[in-house]
UniProtKB/TrEMBL annotation:
Residues 545-613 form the HMG box domain. It is found in: Nucleus, Nucleolus; Nucleus; Chromosome. The keyword Cell division does not apply. Residues 459-551, 609-705 are annotated as: Disordered. GO terms for molecular function: DNA binding; histone binding; nucleosome binding; RNA binding. Residues 474-496 have a biased composition (Acidic residues). Residues 497-507, 647-663, 690-705 have a biased composition (Low complexity). This is FACT complex subunit SSRP1. Its main location: nucleus. Residues 517-531, 624-633 have a biased composition (Basic residues). Residues 532-544, 634-645 have a biased composition (Basic and acidic residues). It comes from the Eukaryota. It comes from Leptocoma aspasia.
Length: 705
């Protein structure tokens, strides 16, 4: 038979709520770990008195009773697991696991039995329901009636708040059954009464959560916070953990008390009690007990007279009374040497402390996250500035915590800490990427392949090449790339046409006016190809040789179909992950084979690139010659336009009416004639037609003479 039994998804009934966790049975005893709070219940095998197996709402349940009267209930077992549990109890605990079903008759008349910390309402020998007396907050009596009030359960949607029992009178003299019932309840109930003197009192302590100044009275079984407005009584059994954390300024200390269940004020729940102390504040403390009682109760952990720093005295007293260890920061040190990191959570700024087994954030709102409940962490780029980054934590329950505005200098320290604790990092491999470029890590596939990182490297190289190509040929056009110039051209054309109609008197003025619209027209013409140019930038030359694949990509293309056949229905993401794992596990000899293929592909690519570059240079030379030829033609067209303007002016002086109607052209019309020589020839012929009537009339006159 196995020495241990483990059960997952077991539910422990605590104060009416079901807390899921893991149950482990061993030779030494029974251990249950709460998945939500991380609290561990440890029952020694020697303390077990009885074990009961019964059918409950969530399948089957196990009830364990200890010799000191405590009761533990665990639900969520399957019926088939009874034989295994029964044999284990017989072999290791020497107990008979009894089967006892609940009574479902629906009667409301029966017998009340008090056993340990349980009140059991039975009909015959079968229990109907059981009430843990630790859930009782108040017990009041009336005539033949007892009323039990319960603590409110925040984790349950519906809470039972009150139960009334009718107790019939008896004929026995001197015994009141109602009072006897109430005394049995109160002896085990969790009714906090501030009776007797406090062990010690700390006056006017600064409390951040709940906010205010409180007097803390230390009683043997509970802690009493007394403020000007509110009072809180905190049983030591509700204290989960104690933390002592140094402030970043090295002058103050946080003392944090984790509570479950939390203290309540209206609808507000306080899961943490946070006290703030100054390191310079000292105190002399005298306990309200004699030395023998102090020695007997605390076994040397406390003395009757103590002195020292205030935070040391409070933490020392709490540790002795609660009987729990105090958690302090581990060996983590940030960029500034502090044991914490300044960051923001939700709307408030605070401090994040990396501990040995978790993270804690103080103070508004306080958050404690254990390592064993973390699914993964993520380092994200800051949303507002590049000087900071965000640290994201997602738990196994799906809850996400984002700590933002962390200084960039803290990244290396925090990454090393998370890596040392072996937490899952969602974007592992990007530590170096925040500081250096992709090119310097081209061989990172040998250590751990990341398909996403590989793709990003390739895209980065393509972007750099396109940027270099565009920067080589864009020098001449940078002056005309300013978009508002297009609006200026439209305005200039209107003014130029008006100006030509009024200022046609001087040759010098007309020359200057001719130059301006020509320059404007050139800019307008150059804007048209620039609108198409971004399309050529987006893609590479289709005739250019393709870049060679890496050894991994060659292997992946050859192995993709085999991976799909071995894993039918696998997604693209899972296929990439699986391929990365196979590549990482591949032997060095097989990798060298693909490295040789990649090297051959690289040589072929370099050879093809040389041939392509020679051809592209020849094309560029031909393009330059065509540009020069085109410019030469434009100058010739411009010279003809100047001659034509002079001819039109002379003809207009001889025949004003006809010359004005035929030879007048706006400046923009003249500038647009640069595109075709055919139009310029047509205009020349029109000018000749306008000037020819004058000499023909003179010749006819001379002929008549």
């Amino acid at each position: 038979m196995a020495d241990t039994l483990e059960f997952n998804e077991i539910y422990q009934e605590v104060k009416g709520s079901m807390n899921d966790g893991r149950l482990r049975l061993s030779r030494q005893g029974v251990i249950f770990k709460n998945s939500k709070t991380g609290k561990v219940d440890n029952i020694q095998a020697s303390e077990l008195a009885e074990g009961v197996w019964r059918r409950v709402a969530l399948g089957h349940g196990l009830k364990l009773l200890t010799k000191n009267g405590h009761v533990y209930k665990y639900d969520g077992f399957r019926e088939s697991e009874f034989d295994k549990l029964s044999d284990f109890f017989k072999a290791h605990y020497c107990l008979e696991l009894m089967e006892k079903d609940l009574c479902v008759k629906g009667w409301n008349w029966g017998t009340v039995r008090f056993g340990g910390q349980l009140l059991s309402f039975d009909i015959g020998e079968q229990p109907v329901f059981e009430i843990p007396l630790s859930n009782v907050s108040q017990c009041t009596t009336g005539k033949n009636e007892v009323t039990l009030e319960f603590h409110q359960n925040d984790d349950a949607e519906v809470s039972l708040m009150e139960v009334r029992f009718y107790v019939p009178p008896t004929q026995e003299d001197g015994v009141d059954p109602v009072e006897a019932f109430a005394q049995n309840v109160l002896s085990k109930a969790d009714v906090i009464q501030a009776t007797g003197d406090a062990i010690c009192i700390f006056r006017e302590l600064q409390c951040l959560t709940p906010r205010g100044r409180y007097d803390i009275r230390i009683y043997p079984t509970f802690l009493h916070l007394h403020g000007k407005t509110f009072d809180y009584k905190i049983p030591y059994t509700t204290v989960l953990r104690l933390f002592l954390l140094p402030h970043k300024d090295q002058r103050q200390m946080f003392f944090v008390i984790s509570l479950d269940p939390p203290i309540k004020q209206g609808q507000t729940r306080y899961h943490f009690l946070i006290l703030l102390f100054s390191k310079d504040e000292d105190i002399s403390l005298t306990l309200n007990m004699n030395e023998e009682e102090v020695e007997k109760r605390f076994e040397g952990r406390l003395t009757k007279n103590m002195s020292g720093s205030l935070y040391e005295m409070v933490s020392r007293v709490m540790k002795a009374l609660v009987n729990r260890k105090i958690t302090v920061p581990g060996n983590f040190q940030g960029h500034s040497g502090a044991q914490c990191i300044t960051c923001s959570y939700k709307a408030s700024s605070g401090l994040l402390y990396p501990l040995e087994r978790g993270f804690i954030y103080v103070h508004k709102p306080p958050v404690h996250i254990r390592f064993d409940e973390i699914s993964f962490v993520n380092f994200a780029r800051g949303t507002t500035t590049t000087r900071s980054f965000d640290f994201e934590i997602e738990t196994k329950q799906g809850t996400q915590y984002t700590f933002s505005s962390i200084e960039r200098e803290e990244y290396g320290k925090l990454f090393d800490f998370v890596n040392a604790k072996k937490l899952n990092i969602k974007n592992r491999g990007l530590k170096e990427g925040m500081k250096q470029s992709y090119d310097e890590y081209a061989d990172s596939d040998e250590d751990q392949h990341d398909a996403y990182l590989e793709r990003m490297k390739e895209e980065g190289k393509i972007r750099e090449e396109n940027a270099n190509d565009s920067s080589d040929g864009s020098g001449e056009e940078t002056d005309s790339s300013f978009n508002p110039g297009e609006e200026d051209d439209d305005v200039a054309e209107e003014f130029d046409s008006n100006a030509s109609a009024s200022s046609s008197s001087g040759d010098g003025d007309s020359d200057r006016d001719d130059k301006k619209p020509a320059k404007k027209a050139k800019i307008v013409k150059e804007h048209k190809p620039r609108k198409k140019q971004p399309e050529s930038k987006k893609g590479k030359d289709p005739n250019a040789p393709k870049r060679p694949m890496s050894a991994y990509m060659l292997w992946l293309n050859a192995s993709r179909e085999k991976i799909k056949s071995d894993h039918p229905g696998i997604s693209i993401t899972d296929l990439s992950k699986k391929a990365g794992e196979l590549w990482k596990a591949m032997s060095k000899e097989k990798k060298e084979e693909w490295d040789r293929k990649a090297e051959d592909a690289r040589r072929d690519y370099e050879k093809a690139m040389k041939e392509y570059s020679v051809g592209s240079k020849a094309d560029s030379h031909r393009g330059e010659r065509s540009k020069k030829k085109k410019k030469k033609q434009e100058k010739q067209v411009k010279g003809k336009g100047d001659k034509k303007g002079a001819t039109s002016k002379s003809s207009s002086s001889k025949s004003p009416a006809k010359g004005m109607s035929d030879s007048f052209k706006s400046k923009e019309f003249v500038s647009s004639d640069e595109s075709s020589s055919a139009e310029s020839k047509k205009e020349d012929s029109e000018d000749e037609g306008a000037a020819s009537p004058a000499p023909s009339s003179e010749d006819s006159a001379s002929g008549s003479d």
